[in-house]
Give the backbone structure.
Amino acid sequence: MMPAARESLLDAAYAALARRPWATVRMVDVAAAAGVSRQTLYNEFGSKEGLARALVRREADGYLAGVERALGSHSEARERLTATAEWMALAARENVLVRAMLTGCWSERLPAPALSAVPSSSPVPAQRRADGPLPSPGDFVQIVRDRAVAVLAGAGRDGSGRDGGELARSCELVVRLALSCVAAPPGEGGVAELVRGVLHRQPV
């Protein structure tokens, strides 16, 4: 199956999830919404659990791609981190699966695939990847922190020694602050004001 067709199936699954609890989403309805047979859907994902894993994997990848864009959106380090924190909060607000992945709180409405890898005999490379380990909330903190350190170090720091350690601490502080805003949204001024206030006292 072409990647675009797989995306259409995942889009249909996400749209179905927006309308009803995952437990009541039927594979036949997802297939019909994407204009393919139910057998085609099973050939691509293997099972409803496989579809759920693929959907979570895609939303995780989309979230991390947004982190990359935010980190490249400004020339000044503080503004890069502020943009990243704003993206984290926005993505979690707009995407229920991203919110669940970042917080570890999976409601009964959502699929809740095991984060550990599952046995996979799928001939589809994208599905074999989805059947691999899925990131935990702690994994996301580490991934975003490390990516931010790499980008900011590459923008003029060597990323080593005391300076690198301070940079890593500042980046992790911003990531964890953004996650706290996911759980308890800030008031007027939003995420950006909080992050800028913290970074004013942090070396970046």
